[in-house]
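seq as requested:
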Amino acid sequence: MSFLGITGKRFKSLLFNKYTIVFMVFAVFVTFFDEHNLIQRWKTNQKIYRMEKELKFYKEEIKSTKQKKNELESSDENLEKFAREHYLLKKENEDIFIIKE
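struct tokens:
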């Protein structure tokens, strides 16, 4: 017999071994059909990653907003400047020119 013939028989006997078949059925079941399958776990991990990224973004936004709030509450000049810039408030004898870029 040739080397390929012997190797082919060994491969065939390993492939159709009852333990190999049970392992392959189990692997297919866990990958696709189980309630907590690998595909679902991968999607869940991706969702967790996106949500952690959003959480980090919102924590930074809260921090910057609190800093702006503290600046506005610290002095009347900052509050007046904010009101003029964002709400277009003015004094009685002033004119406002809005320049859009």
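The chain has four helices and no strands.
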